[in-house]
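Re: [help] complex structure
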Amino acid sequence: MDIKRLLKDLTAATGIGNIKEATEVAAKYLSDFCEVSYTDNLGLIAEIKGKRDYSILFEAHIDQVGFIVTDVDDKGFLTVATCGGIDLRALPSRQVNIHGSKKVRGVFCSTPPHLSEDDVTFEKISDIKIDSCLGNKACEIISVGDYVTFATDICELKGNKVSAKSLDDRAGVAVLIELASRFKDKQPPVNLIFCLSDMEELGLRGAKTSAFAAFPNEAIAIDVSFADGPDIKPTECGKMGSGAMIGISPVLDRDITNKLISLAADNNIPYQTEVMGKTTGTDADIISITKSGIRTGLVSIPLRNMHTDCEIISLSDIKSVCDLLECYAEAVNLND
Amino acid sequence: MTELLKRLATLDGTSGDESAVKDFIVKEISPYCEYETDALGNIIAFKRGNKSPKKKIMLDAHMDEVGLIITSFTDDGFLRFKTIGGINTSALMFKRVKVGGSINGIISGKPIHLTSGDESKKLPKADELYIDIGAASKEEARSCVIEGDRAVMVSDFTENYDKIISKALDDRIGCAILIKLIKEYDDYDFTAVFSVQEEIGLRGARVAAFNVDPYAAIIIEGTTAADIADVPEDKSVCSLGDGAAVSFMDKATVYDREYYYAALNSGIAVQPKRAVAGGNNSGAVHLSRDGVRTIAVSVPCRYIHSSSSVADKHDIAAAYELCKYMINYIADD
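Output below.
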């Protein structure tokens, strides 16, 4: 599968609140390989039947960070609230798409250097407005409750990397689709369930209902995690291009984690470990305590500039994650 | 005019590296005028009109835009840079740039999740930021970028009804107006200067004005508009949609008072710039040789010097009309 094309399609689509474009794009891809069923408003479930009645859930979240309009003034300036964690420092002069009765381009207000001695920073999101560039027409097109998302397109970087908005977690969604495609012509030993959860950025909400609906025998969440950069302690991040980040945490199932590590090592798949002392901050936290409990693992893709409109990932890391999960899906019953 | 502006604004031309803009403009104007380029890269064009004014009139718009220059590399392949022209750090953080003409890069810094205490509330200094082009080592980075290469902001050119959102509206708006004047205005002769290096100290216009030796000058600029939410009216400087802005005084120039009044009374949509702030090529031009009578005709731009400045098409049209009016006014004097 052309991963770049897949990422382009997935990141260009919007997935926030009632806007489900991204789910639709992913469903179209997945329907080539799996049986797709929507669970409810909070997610999508697709399945490939295996030889045995045992199921592994592969989960990624489909939603993205963004904003929701809380006020429209008569000069066309919007007040918004955040949906997910946003770095307020970097908002001034950033372009956004405003999903009103039609989609319009807006800009976060900034004060130019000619007028401000120092850069202005903001205590809270309501301190910085969005210029809809619509003047007094804004009220006709934009309403309270409309969503606002970042506006950049995907671009290619050196070293087999790409930059785009929403790679958290469309990169994980791309992994699920690529993984499903690898079982197009071979039946897996067990049932593979692919789940795209909504509202992760608002507190792991969608995974709660979709893991309940799927109720697999075991689960692996696929998310992104912090990658290296200058000024970032190597102990606080993964290294971009160095492979799948296998999560180790008290909430994750140690057998699954160990199996991921040994499969990566045995098959020469690039990997690194990410050790956390508490919950992981990913959907794995909620999946593992669904119903009577689900043994859960976590594999992450190293990502830079998280929650900005220019997140960066390495395609080689995506490949490593896909290779590892393919091995895992095929090896699941070897020890039984 | 909007189509012309789009083509101009999407060209890359940081100060001292304006050749892409220069080449485009030369192609546009060459059928309509005589022109030469000077040692610094200024275009000096002479447009013959139906009549010759008694005294020489020069119009100026600058071709350069703010941007970055690459200074060094980190061992792990990130690029360090300095700014060219005044840019706020907030306009840089996590923004996409094009390095050395074709390499995509992201201006990055410490992610907010990994900051603590005061650090998460304040902006880093520009020299704490770096550009990530995806290279994993200094060698890989240096194979496609070298010290001194430029980085320019990347943004879509968007039209929202009457508004335009783009990088480099300062001063490709001026360039677009001046090109249109060369193509369509022919009452009087005038000299058009497309100048270099405005953003780093009005350097191109200084030598061009010396060379042209005009009696009067009209500087066409994009100027800062702060008519935005949470800024009190008296600090707004000028307002989008209220017409071309003319200045009585800024940080570099006290403008010719007669021309200032003439512009305000022209009957065209004109607003006074309500602050003594900023500066433009007038600062260099009005002090050229034994002095040049100077007026600046400005188009209000919100979020100037960022990748997303915003201007109003009506103001651009008004600035064009005001330039024509002022040439005639000065020529008939």
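Chain B has two domains: 2-65+167-332, 67-153.
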